[in-house]
Specification:
31% helix; 8-stranded parallel β-barrel; N-(5'-phosphoribosyl)anthranilate isomerase; EC 5.3.1.24; PRAI_dom; binds the ligand O=C(O)c1ccccc1N[C@@H]1O[C@H](COP(=O)(O)O)[C@@H](O)[C@H]1O; RibuloseP-bd_barrel; amino-acid biosynthesis; alpha/beta; two-stranded antiparallel sheet
Amino acid sequence: MKTEVKICGLKTMEALDRAVALGASHTGFIFFPKSPRNIEPDDAGRLAERIRGRAKIVAVTVDADNDDLDEIVSALKPDILQLHGAESPERVLTVKAVYGLPVMKALSIREPFDLKRIDAYLGIADRFLLDAKPPAGSDLPGGNGVSFDWRLLDALDGAVDYMLSGGLNADNIGAALALTGARAVDISSGVESAPGVKDLKLMDAFFDAVRRAEAQGHDQGARSESGA
Ligand SMILES: O=C(O)c1ccccc1N[C@@H]1O[C@H](COP(=O)(O)O)[C@@H](O)[C@H]1O
């Protein structure tokens, strides 16, 4: 089975078109002003129209209130909302009820206990995005190019549907897939030449590496499909 790949932090037509041409299953747009990948909702909406229906459109937000979500959802018309802040299970339920969209809840992982936080969102979040904890002093909850110890996922219940994220790149994705059996991966800074600047050659190299790993038959475990 093909690995789902989400290319996140897209801001230009060239990068978006290349992501979809390479077979990205998901495209991510960041709505977080402190991020070098931040994009205005209207600009993201115009870009996303080029690829609607060919890859899922993901709005990445961080503890956004309903006013911000109203603007983002209305301009972008995303397929999925990625909540990348400290949103509680109750907040995830509210967002799902208000917007009627699948929610991918990001959780940051550093130690075994961090995986336990999944339990509170089971049956609420449609999918999880498992990212590394930000380094000390970072302004960003994600997009830091930092990995967590993928072996921690050995303890994860096989039914948990997740995207593997954090510090992935063409050099380490083969090992990440072989170790985790992840069926879906998410990448941002690993395909950039500078913060917020997507590099088409790095994107090509990343997809090549994913396809090579697939050809080698990395263990795609039995995680369930969520629609997110
Ligand atoms: O990328 C950002 O700037 C960002 C800002 C706010 C919330 C989430 C963000 N990024 C997410 O983090 C992952 C991992 O990034 P990386 O591959 O380690 O650079 C990224 O794909 C987004 O989902």
